[in-house]
Amino acid sequence: MADIIEGKRPVVEALRTGVPMKCLLLGDYVKKDGLVEDILRKAKRADVPVKLVPRRTLDERSERGSHQGVLAQAKPFGYVGIGEIVDAAARLTAERDGRALVVILDHITDAGNFGAIARSAETVGACGLVIPNKRSARVEASTYKSSAGAITHLPVAQVSNLVQTMMRLKEEGFWIAGATEHASDVIWDVNLKGKIALVMGNEQEGLSRLVMEHCDLLAKLPVEGEVASLNVAQAATACMYEWLRQNR
Fold first, then answer.
1. Fewest 10 Å CB contacts: which of 12, 179, 210, 233?
2. Which helix (H) or strand (E) holds 39?
3. How far apart are CA 185 and CA 217, in angstroms?
4. Torsion angle (degrees, nearest 10) of CA 156, 158, 164, 169
5. What's the CA gap between 71 and 39, in Å, rounded?
6. Strand pairing report for 128-132 and 156-159
7. CATH of span 4-74
8. For 82-246, which CATH superfamily applies?
9. Does residue 32 have a pLDDT over 90?
10. Which residues have CB under 8 Å from 11's CB, separation 6+?
């Protein structure tokens, strides 16, 4: 997660969307206008300590030079191990007649797409998200806003090897479904019942060759318009809801 949030409105928004914070730094020279009063109220409600500091301290900590006398230090996001997502899936399959969904992101790099996918995944009841620990969007302060707070309720695992993780999920009874426009089958005709790990590819290149080779099945969304494909967040939402429809 990005460590520093700076500026009055960004800090207000971060507090509003529940970004976990270590502390809030407020310039000892700042006049208490409406925004500052709002920040102090929200910080008190969230039990975030507020420290009065000189301008020099804020200038030194600022990354963009736009602190406006206010900086917040966010806590690191609590990633989980893949084992915790597997355990959550086991609990849910017992409650949901054998159905569970894990969403794997094959090097999604856009933070907005990542947040939107997390929001949809939490909405359909996914057990968790899996992302690579390199060359991938990760949970930052902005993710709380782009996911509408859903990231707070969704386990996220950072892994060093996606293929090994897919193999682990197969051992746990998951079928690996890759979403790609190069598939021959439309997603409506693919069996997504039960325990499914849905893999979504990078915004520009789609699924990597190695990841695609280790998928059990591939599916595409039907396209009847002139635009070749959907944004990856929109496509992921459509695929997740098809899983939910088949398992309703």
1. 210
2. helix 34-45
3. 9
4. -10
5. 11
6. parallel
7. 3.30.1330.30
8. SPOUT methyltransferase, trefoil knot domain (3.40.1280.10)
9. no
10. 5, 24, 39, 70, 71, 72
What is the pTM (predicted TM-score) of this model? 0.85
Q: In the chain, list all ranges with CATH 3.40.1280.10.
A: 82-246
Place of tokens 């968790």: 128
Q: What is the mean pLDDT of residues 124-135?
A: 94
Instruction: Return the structure tokens found at 120.
Output: 């949809």
pLDDT tens digit sequence for 189-212: 999 999 999 999 998 888 999 999
Q: Measuring CA to CA, which residue among 56, 75, 76, 78 is closest to residue 67?
A: 56
The pLDDT of residue 1 is above 50? no
How many Å apart are CA 25 and CA 71, to the nearest integer? 5
Instruction: Quote the CA–CA distance of 1 and 99 in Å, as a whole number.
Output: 31
The position carrying tokens 């996911």 is 147
